[in-house]
Amino acid sequence: MPNASYYRKEAERCRVAAATTTDGAAAVRWLRIAKDYDALANVLAAEEQRLSQPGMTRLSMQQRPVQQQPVQQQPVQQQSKLEEC
Predict the structure, then answer these.
(1) Would you list the domain boundaries of the chain?
(2) How many Å apart are CA 7 and CA 4, to the nearest integer?
(3) pTM of the model
(4) Is 41 exposed, middle or buried (0-12, 13-18, 19+ CB in 10 A)?
(5) Which of 19, 34, 75, 80 is 20 to 30 A from 41 in CA distance terms?
């Protein structure tokens, strides 16, 4: 999974693209994308910091307990051959 550093680099790449384009609308789009990458990086950085505290661990999907929904069985209606005719 990408970490905060990855998204910060992507944000910087977008800012460079915005600065080098001659299309003003494209520059605005690049800057919006950079802002989104920065937001992702901030969320991941906070999560990484939270998980680095003692006693905090993240369980992988294989380690998480599975919660199964109860299955409601409905009676099966059988039609006899005579009813079909």
Answers:
(1) 1-56
(2) 5
(3) 0.60
(4) buried
(5) 19
